[in-house]
Amino acid sequence: MRTRTPHNPVSHRFSFALALAALFTLSFAAIPTPCQSPPAPTQKQTGIIFDVSSVKPARNNDTPGFIRRLDIGTVSVASMTVYDMIELFYYVKPYQLSGGPDWSKRERFDVVGKDSTIGTMGQPKGDALAAAVKAGDEQMRQLLKDRFQLELRHEVRALPTLMLLADKKKKFSQVPCSSTYRLQHGVVKGAIHIASLTSLLQVEYGMPVSDGTGLDGCYYIDTEWTNDPNNDSLPSIATSLHDLGFGIKRVTSDVDVLIIAHLERPQPD
Questions:
Q1: Among 26, 155, 167, 220, which residue's CB has the most CB atoms within a 10 Å radius?
Q2: How far are the Cα atoms of 84, 90, 140 from residue 78, in angstroms, in the given order?
Q3: Confidence band of 135 (pLDDT split at 50, 70, 90)
Q4: 22 or 1: which carries more pLDDT confidence?
Q5: CA dihedral 220, 224, 225, 231 (to 10 degrees)
């Protein structure tokens, strides 16, 4: 374990909704827009560090990575690559990250950061939970800089992207928005905003998907699809969207990406 002089954590303007004492989960409805800017990597970090940190090679390099928030002020990352951690704590998608040595995508690490100045505060809720997650993410960003000598820079690149379009001949009828719906891999059912659909498609396609439908408000969508070409029981994404009156067009868009300018293997504890 490495120790540092305690500092008081401060919050940052970016949030990342993770539950304490649970595995990291991602809500499709809360996926950031494709061109959302990550936290500025060059901004000076002041007083946002763990006073105790541990970085070790993962015991099993083949184990999928996960994150646990054991208590307020303690973040534990298991079996994650540096790429995984940058995507997680800088809130970027794989296509928004570039550069770095080959090992940064292959070698996995177990990382623990603890801010003992916070102490036990019980289970926070609402704004208190969001503030605790924000502070922990900010501290993990600083840990990556301290222990991995991580240096990042912003760059805007013209990348292949997709645009969701609506059939002009089809009549789309707005419905009241609902807080109850299914929006997950291969399944959409309920009254949702088109932005929620594009967010899901962004995950399914693994690249940015913008909304070019011009449709405002909510629409009831009930469909399923599969990405498995050997599964004949469900249609493909393209077929499912076509049946709903949508189409996908390939375009080129400016996307804000992070470039790994410098990275070093950490000294294990």
A1: 220
A2: 11, 17, 13
A3: confident
A4: 1
A5: -160
Span 223-241, pLDDT tens digits: 999 999 899 999 999 999 9
Residues 6+ apart with CB under 8 A from 206: 94, 95
Higher pLDDT, 226 or 36: 226
Question: CA-based angle 129:86:88, to the nearest 5?
Answer: 35
In contact, 204 and 193? CB cutoff 8 Å: no
Q: Which tokens hold the place of 25?
A: 């989960």
3 token code pair = 């120790």
119 phi/psi in degrees, rounded to 5: 80, -175
Type of residue at 8 = N
Domain residues of the chain, as ranges? 2-154, 157-255
The per-residue DSSP string of 141-163 comes to HHHHHHHH--EEEEEEEEEEEEE
Copy the structure tokens of residue 35: 């061109």
Opening angle at CA 262, ends 57 and 153, nearest 5: 125
Identity at 27, one-letter amino acid code: S
